[in-house]
Write a structure and sequence with these properties.
Length: 215
Amino acid sequence: MAFQPTFVKDRPEKLPAPQQLTLENIERDCWEYLLQGSLKGKDGFHTFALGTYSGQEVEMRTLVLRKVEKSERLIFTHTDARSPKVYQLESGHTAGLLFYDPNRKIQIRIKARPSIHKDDFIAGMLWSETRLSARKSYLSIKSPGHILGQGEDGLPEHLRGRDPDLEESQAGLQNFLVLGFEVLQMDWLYLHSQGHRRAVFQYNEAGYDALWVNP
Ligand SMILES: Cc1cc2nc3c(=O)[nH]c(=O)nc-3n(C[C@H](O)[C@H](O)[C@H](O)COP(=O)(O)O)c2cc1C
């Protein structure tokens, strides 16, 4: 049977019992929510805000959660290799990942160590799982953020209004890049009318240290 999160299924009226709302259950459920977010397009954790430090200011943008490897504490997303976020993530700073699901009323804030996957095994594996419609965005002529003379999608003329076929889509691989995030810290916040709850999980080689904190 598929794993069911322990304490928040769908908007419980009552705060879950203390024996359910343990740090151990919360940590395990957070990873289950992230996994569900990577698998289901309509899940509240399917997208997240990624915060990077550009050297002068913080930059934020929305990304799709593509893959979760709980055993390695890794989260993956796809992006265009030419996009500014890539060199911001290469700077050595940690990244911030922010999830909020209004149905579960849970926010998860993650501090993570980024890794860049271009033309490697991980990039090849995730590219093979992408749909033709998703590959289309990697076929744009200019890099993301490039100034255009008018509002347009930046795609070559022959792809306007349609998806590429499999052969056409292969050209997108040169712009395709996978961002990996090793989770270093997870901050869980649960909003509830009977009292919010918040806990922080700090990962280390042995597992994690967990603390309840004031919401
Ligand atoms: C709902 C939504 C999902 C998005 N998913 C992605 C994504 O998975 N990968 C990506 O590179 N950009 C995605 N974007 C676009 C980014 O938010 C951003 O505009 C783009 O990647 C350029 O970011 P940068 O200039 O900070 O590098 C998404 C935007 C929205 C609104």
